[in-house]
## 1
Amino acid sequence: NAGVTQTPKFRVLKTGQSMTLLCAQDMNHEYMYWYRQDPGMGLRLIHYSVGEGTTAKGEVPDGYNVSRLKKQNFLLGLESAAPSQTSVYFCASTPGRRDIDTQYFGPGTRLTVL
Amino acid sequence: GQNIDQPTEMTATEGAIVQINCTYQTSGFNGLFWYQQHAGEAPTFLSYNVLDGLEEKGRFSSFLSRSKGYSYLLLKELQMKDSASYLCAVADSNYQLIWGAGTKLIIKP
């Protein structure tokens, strides 16, 4: 099992460009999450999904969109990147809502927006 | 609002003991977590407390007092590989995790 994988690992964008971050898990987990991590701040939840075809907003959803067309994949899109979106992005998954003690993280995507 | 506080940075000596504190104010409580995060890597799960008291796992122990909104992570027999950030997180009433900013632990020989 690969667990949770993320692509790409690194990316540099110019302001206004768009991109999609891909998260994939092979554990048949229902719940998937996108976080961002910034220096001096805790992980902040961007969006999450409770199952295929469903998504919900987290703490900091503005400027991001997500899709969960297949159970194993959770995509995070930036339509028009801004320097404030420079961050490390982590994807995570859990079997269910109450299984938060088994939260599995991907390796992260380091995004710089110039 | 929801808030989790932990020290920004701590320094300790190899072989010693260190205690990392975490205080929280959240909407509801469904457990407190400690994660370890080495530089440039993803967080990995260390411990979970939902009832008051001490949970021990080898060199690591975690304590919770729900009435005081307080937890600590105790690391014994420190090793150089324990140099990392330690993240405190609380599950709120909706089982969403609220994360502290993390404590960077520096281990000196």
## 2
Amino acid sequence: QMQMLESGPGLVKPSETLSLTCTVSGVSIDTGGYYWAWIRQPPGKGLEWIGRIFYRGTTDYHPSLMSRLTISRETSKNQFSLKLRSVTDADTAVYYCARSNEGYYGSGSYGLWGRGTVVTVSS
Amino acid sequence: DIQMTQSPSSLSASVGDRVTITCRASQDISIYVSWYQQKPGKAPNLLIYAASNLEGGVPSRFRGSGSGTDFTLTISSLQPEDFATYYCQESRDTLFTFGPGTTVDLK
């Protein structure tokens, strides 16, 4: 069964780096056609797409986060990761990892999600 | 940037009701729209992709329609497990902007 699980510190100090890892099971992140993404949800608010990494390793980032963001992958561990630098309290959110669907129209939709991890930015 | 709006922001309905949620894009996005359901404390669940395609395992009472700038999610007969927040999301550009959500609660 395909599963995704986020892990990382639940508390990060302002100006430091938020680092999260998504561990994928049941499917290889090398499998052709899929994008692997990070999406977040501030408390009581809506969803914000952060960025994605393609199975080939190329990345796309939200322009508002691009200067602070790195998404990478470690295929040997079937994991992909997020690093967000210089965080502020505006980065407090539930962070989800997700996998896109396949295909021309499906690749922009996310049919498989992790359960999410709460990250609080506070001193 | 493409902006996504949803209406209404919330609605109250009863089991068995037909429910319609509207999503509008600020520019033509063809059929690059998905719909998600989210329950409190849970990850979103994909219902519809490419405007009208039902995701596998999703009940057929959910239907998506529309193209261009105006899209609709219809629940034909609301079930107890359908009380949740619903989000549309565009994928015409690589911002993948979500709408602000529509909360469906019990009348």
